[in-house]
Amino acid sequence: MRHWTEGFDDGDADEQLVRPYTITSGRTTPERSDLTLVTLVGTLPEVTTQAALAVRRMQPEHRTILGLCRDPKAVVEVAAKLGLPVSLTKILIGDLVDSGHMWARSPQPLSRAGGLSDMTILEAVRDGLRKL
Q1: Neighbours of 39 (CB within 10 A)
Q2: Is 32 helix (H, G, I), strand (E, B) or coil?
Q3: Plot region of 23 (φ>0 → left; ψ -120 to 50 → alpha; else → beta)
Q4: Burial letters for 93-103: b for 16+ Cβ neighbours within 10 Å, e otherwise?
Q5: Which residues pair with 103 in a beta bridge?
Q6: Which candidate, 44, 46, 58, 110, has a CA 20 to 30 Å from the CA of 93?
């Protein structure tokens, strides 16, 4: 996919801002607060013919995101592969999650594999650093 700034004259910064604005239908901030840089996103299997028709009517960026996220990826990875700003990518992913085409999951916190509390881990790191 081409980067949205390709083909613009480098001297006109105002024109570069038009394309992302139109991709998001004028929205400049994501509506979903749960989408962070490391939020994992993936596509849901299409269950109906209506869902397949809805995908065809989407913007090319939405369809590209669906193709990229067949295997779960972090939001920041999707933005990098699209060559779009992260804030814009969050808006597009939010659209797809809200429409039922994708899922989003915050990364799991550090697991307590050995049953250690967070404070125990921090103390172990602190003690290790002191020994250096």
Answers
A1: 20
A2: coil
A3: alpha
A4: bbbbbeeebbe
A5: 42
A6: 110
